[in-house]
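ingest -> validate -> predict -> emit
validate: passed (alphabet ok, no gaps, 248 aa)
predict: started
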Amino acid sequence: MIHFFRRRPTAARPIFAPLGADMHCHLLPCVDDGSRGNDETEVCLQVMHDAGFGKVYCTPHYQYPRFPNDEEDIKRRFADLKTDIASNLQKLDIELAGVAGEYRYDSVFGERVEKDSFLLIAGKYLLVEFSLSQQVMGYEDVLFGLQMKGYEIILAHPERYPYFAGNSPRLEHLKEMGILFQANVLSLSGFYGEGTQIKAFDMVNRGWVDFLGTDLHNPIYARALIENTHDRKVEKLIETHTFLNNTL
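emit:
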């Protein structure tokens, strides 16, 4: 039943403090479908601080041809962002810890592998995203090749891929390969739908999820994060499971 008159929470609770760091968000302005300016970024950072995060890694999309970002340009834009909002960051008491990328396994991913210029989370982890609609093929050999080069690979939000069940043998094989999984915290409260929510909880309870990320894009997502912090099921999950965020 929909409760039309239910009062929405107006402030976040710091339930994500045990994680320490958010390692997946789109708050670098004007480079993808995320933040459209410094003001939106600051709104989101305020909510993230209030939700318990102490540091943030920005991970803009690298997706051809929609977001053909360049690593050097992204690094310059990130440095400019930190300079532009430095005084407010100090007031917020939250750290913009670094910039990396969310790299789509797409038609030019092989070229990126050859170029070997990925931006890594904390200088260590490569965040890879699959298509959200079309089943991808041939990725295992490519990911294994990256591992042989020394990359530690994180698969972004596996619960959101409709062609993978929560207990998918293909996902299980990726875990056996040593691929790390990152689930979206908003998946846990149903932001992307009930099916995604069920898969997210199932993966966490299987011990498959190594990182949680906000995947925050804009103030709409930030409002959803506020509601997320009032979800007792999410709070209990944070209390009872161990994630690697606080090692970043």
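The chain has nine helices and nine strands.
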